[in-house]
Structure formats: C-alpha cells, structure tokens
Inverse folding.
C-alpha cells in the first residue's frame, strides 16, 4: 500500500468515526426495557418510564420524534432524574416534551448539577481530566422549577410523596436533590415516612447509592453518568469514565435495584458516543 492510499484510508476512517460519534450515535435513541423484582408483595406489576440527562439547549427534531414515540407508552409513573437543560432556551422544549408523556400516577422529577450550575463547554475537558470545578450558578434554575410545576411535573426537592398504586397499597417516591452540587439532604428527604408498600428513590447521581443503603429502599433511579459515553464490547466504559464515577451502570449490589440511565443528551462538545446509545428505560417492577 503506497502512502497516498494509506492517507486516504486514514482520513476516511477518522471522518467516519467523527461523524458516527458526534452525529449518528448521539441521535440514535433507543427504548431499553428492564424488569426488576422487589421483595414485596405487589398486587399488580408497575411500569415506569425513566428519562434522564436531556441537556436541552434548543429544540432537537430527532429527539422530538423519539418523545412522540414515548408519548404512546401508558406507564404507571414517569421518573426524570436531572440535567434537563443546559440553557434558558432549553426550558421550553424540555417542558413541552415532558408534557406529552402519559402516566397514570404522575411525572416525578429531581434536578441535576447542570440544572443548578453552568459548565462552560470549552472547559469541560479540563474538568474531566483534572476534576477542577469550572462552573458558575445557573440564573434560570427557578424559572425551570416554575415551568415544571406549571406543567404538572412533581418536582421533589429533598422530600417524599406517597402515591396510591391500588386500593390497599401505596408507593412512596423519595426525591433527593442534586448530590453533585452538595444539595442532597437524605435525612430531610426521608423524613416522615411511616408506611408504604414500595419505597423508590430518585437521585441524579448514582454515587449516592451507597448512602441510600441504610434507608431500606426497594429501588433507586439515577442518571448523570451517560453510561460512560464511550464503551467497548466486552470491556465497558473507558477508564476516564470510571475516574469520574465509580458507579456507571445499573446495579443491585447495595441491597436494592439501582437503575442508571445512559441519558438522552450531553453538552455539545462532549456529546460523542460509541457503543453507548442514548436511551429511555421502561422498567417493569414485579413483586414476590
């Protein structure tokens, strides 16, 4: 092979990888299905649509089409686990798409670090490599909260809410505020819980799973990790992802079912994905 052909193949390969990781896979959404079993007697299985890490900055036509697909699902609950926006302009399309979703018992959400803080895109690689916090307060957080509440989304900020799931049983949904920015208050979130057939926690970052162990919950839903974004078959996430978060994938090693979404978006300069398609998860919870 002469140098000219080698360079042509190399440039073609680099171009293909760039297009795939930046434009094709980040917009190749999937609906992932999981079934979990809890050590409780539930009269009827529950279905939960889990959405996380939307990172809206503007309308995204391909994501809009995916939400139109999700809107056809009739679930018991919709759970949203943070990082909804990355700009004020993202509030409108985010709320519009969440309002489409059907849920017999409501849409419940917690916020993530990007909902509270601005992370300049050009400094993201510095943050990932060094761990240095380059963020600043997001001024439109209260605007986002208000828009969610007006849309009927139940935003849980270190609080819990009992929800009937049949004539004689109820689930308690515990919403823990963002742990990444130091807003999580576990004692406050679990205060006043006296009963409930199921105890389900929502939190943005799965790094909180070890702290949730002592509360005796049945399941927890989280996002934040994006599944590592770059994965290799048989190996998993790249080492940098493990450095950023020790818990990346769903796990049951903490005494409950911990469901971690790979999310539906990312910041513009760090949105590349490889063998890690963006996803929503449809979870079926079965009892004993």
């Amino acid at each position: 092979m002469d140098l000219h052909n080698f360079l042509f193949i190399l440039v073609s390969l680099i171009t293909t990888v760039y297009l795939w990781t930046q434009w094709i896979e980040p917009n190749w959404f999937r609906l992932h299905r999981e079934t979990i079993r809890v050590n409780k007697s539930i009269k009827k299985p529950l279905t939960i649509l889990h959405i996380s890490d939307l990172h809206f900055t503007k309308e995204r036509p391909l994501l809009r089409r995916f939400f139109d697909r999700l809107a056809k699902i009739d679930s018991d609950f919709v759970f949203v686990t943070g990082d909804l926006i990355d700009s004020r302009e993202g509030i409108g399309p985010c709320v519009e798409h969440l309002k489409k979703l059907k849920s017999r018992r409501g849409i419940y959400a917690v916020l993530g670090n990007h909902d509270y803080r601005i992370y300049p895109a050009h400094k993201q690689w510095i943050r990932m490599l060094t761990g240095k916090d380059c963020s600043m307060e997001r001024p439109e957080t209260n605007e986002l909260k208000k828009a969610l509440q007006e849309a009927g989304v139940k935003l849980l900020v270190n609080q819990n809410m009992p929800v009937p799931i049949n004539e004689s049983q109820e689930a308690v949904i515990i919403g823990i505020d963002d742990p990444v920015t130091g807003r999580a208050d576990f004692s406050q979130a679990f205060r006043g819980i006296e009963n409930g057939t199921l105890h389900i926690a929502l939190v943005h970052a799965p790094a909180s799973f070890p702290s949730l162990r002592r509360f005796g919950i049945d399941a927890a839903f989280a996002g934040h990790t994006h599944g590592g974004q770059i994965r290799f078959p048989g190996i998993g996430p790249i080492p940098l992802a493990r450095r950023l978060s020790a818990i990346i994938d769903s796990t049951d090693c903490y005494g409950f079912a911990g469901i971690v979404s790979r999310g539906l978006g990312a910041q513009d300069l760090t949105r590349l994905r490889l063998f890690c398609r963006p996803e929503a998860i449809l979870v079926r919870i079965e009892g004993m």
Notes: The chain has nine helices and 17 strands. The chain has one domain: 3-286. The mean pLDDT is 93.
